[in-house]
Design a protein that fits this description.
Number of helices: 2
CATH class of the largest domain: Mainly Beta
Distance between the termini: 89 Å
Structural class: mainly beta
Helix content: under 10%
Number of domains: 2
Bound molecules: FE2/S2 (inorganic) cluster
Shape: elongated
CATH architecture of the largest domain: 3-layer Sandwich
Number of strands: 13
């Protein structure tokens, strides 16, 4: 047996159409079983670092539990946006045991003393806002601004407006508009506020 193979589960541990998180080289991996076959992919969602292994399978897509991004477990590519993807890793199943190959999986540094310890991931450092939150939580102050993203932000020209069919036609300029507001229309003495005068009856 290849010494780089690490047993991460047994087949019996993994019900069909389920996902679980395993760790190899300090890296969390979402291990999926779908229609009897096994798939492994990086546990961290590239959107905001959600744990895909806490998500759910929808057919052969894994759905991130935080904001619903989807990734095909066979390729790691998002069906919604093909530019978004997570790394996949080969899985070996032998004699009822499930293995991953250490040599396939990048080593993640273990930082037992750092804030969040082993839950902290280098991915977090790509997001300045996450870094800022970690610094605050660790009692440090930084000059970083929260809510900054390293991802490209769409420009106004990127938006495409599609006219939609509306159920009723909008009013023409010369048609009267009732701008009054009635508070308690079913009350004995409802209050009516008119656009240009305030009256009650
Ligand atoms: S963190 Fe995964 S969809 Fe937002």
């Amino acid at each position: 047996m290849n010494p780089d193979l690490v047993q991460v589960a047994t087949v019996a541990d993994c019900p069909d159409n389920s996902v679980t998180i395993v760790t190899v080289n300090n890296k969390d991996i979402a291990l999926c079983r779908y229609e009897g076959a096994f798939y492994a992919l990086d546990n961290r969602c590239p959107h905001r670092g959600g744990q895909l292994g806490d998500g759910r399978l929808s057919g052969c897509d894994i759905i991130c539990p935080l904001h619903g991004w989807d990734f095909d477990i066979r390729t790691g590519i998002s069906r919604y946006n093909h530019l978004d993807s997570v790394q996949t890793f080969p899985v070996i199943v032998k004699d009822g045991a499930v293995y991953l190959n250490k040599a396939d999986i990048p080593l993640e540094p273990s930082e037992p003393e750092a804030y969040l310890a082993k839950w902290r991931r280098p991915f977090d450092d790509r997001e300045e806002s996450m870094n800022f939150i970690h610094c605050l939580a660790g009692g440090q102050k930084t000059k970083l601004e929260p809510m900054v993203t390293g991802r490209p932000v769409p420009k106004f020209d990127s938006f495409l407006f599609l006219p939609g069919q509306i159920a009723s036609l909008s009013l023409l300029d010369d048609e009267p508009v009732d701008a009054s507001c009635v508070i308690g229309p079913n009350a004995k003495r409802p209050l009516r506020h008119c656009a240009n005068a305030s009256t009650s009856k």
